[in-house]
Every structure is written in structure tokens, then in C-alpha cells.
Amino acid sequence: MGETFRQLGHLFAQSIPTVIFVFLLGVILDRLFFRPLDAVLKQREEETLGAFDRARELSAAADAKAKEYEAEFQAARQEVYRRRESDRRTGLQEREEMLSGARARAESALKDAQAALHAEAESVKQQLTGITRSLALEVTRTVVGEATLRGPEGGAGR
Questions:
Q1: pTM above 0.90, yes or no
Q2: Tens digit of pLDDT for each residue in 82-103?
Q3: Which of 34, 49, 74, 156 has the least C-beta neighbours within 10 A?
Q4: d(CA 148, CA 158)
Q5: pLDDT class for 157, splitting at 50, 70, 90?
Q6: How far apart are CA 26 and CA 113, in angstroms?
Q7: What is d(CA 115, CA 121) in angstroms, rounded to the nearest whole number?
Q8: Are 114 and 122 in contact (CB under 8 A)?
Q9: Contacts of 154 (CB under 8 A, 6+ apart)
């Protein structure tokens, strides 16, 4: 067993420079390679997360702008509908006023025509009355005149 310990001691002594070399290599790699690499990876992660955060912020801002534009668009659409309705009402009111004016003019013209017709009818009645009287007188003269021309003998013989 003593020999085994001695061989192990000898192997241990021979491995010390290798262990020191591996340890130094680990320290050198850590300082020269792993720490800068870790710093670059952390920076990259921070920038990536920052970019994601900025993208979320920009997306939220874009959504807010889209909602704002949609609200403005709706307001503009409502304004157009309100104006269209106002114009329609104005047009209907103007049309109603024109119809009322035309109706009033037509009624006035109808009343004037009726009054003129009534006046003309009265004039015609007066003319007819005058003509009727003159015809009646003529008929009476003709009938009475024939009786007077025939005399009493024409009337007594019968």
C-alpha cells in the first residue's frame, strides 16, 4: 500500500502544474473571453428588451392615435350627417314655402276667376233680363198688335 501512496503522491505532484495551468487558463478565459462575452450578451438582452419595450410603447401610441383618428373620423362623419340633415330640412322648408306660395297664388287666382265669373254671370243675367223684356214687349206688341189689327170682328165671330 505504501507503494500506491507513493505513486499517488508522485501523480499528484506531476498534476500540480496542470491544475495550476487549468486554473490560470480558467482565470484568463474568464477575464478575456467570458466576462466580455457575458457583458455583450447582457447588453444585447437589455437592448432587445428595450427594443421590445419601445415597440410596445410605439404600438400603444399607434393604437391610441388610431383610436383618436377613429374618434375624429366619427365626429367628422356625424358633422357631415348633421349638415346633410340640416340641408335636407332647409330644402324641405324652402319647398314647403314655395308650395304654400304657389297654393296661395292659385287660391287667389281661383278667387279672382270666381269673382270675375260671378260678375260676368250677373252681367249676362242683366243682359238676358233686358233682352227678355224687349222680346216680351215685342211678343206682346205682335200678339196685341195682331189682335188690334184684326179688330172686333175677328174676335167676335169666333
A1: no
A2: 999 999 999 999 999 999 999 9
A3: 156
A4: 15
A5: very low
A6: 124
A7: 10
A8: no
A9: 147
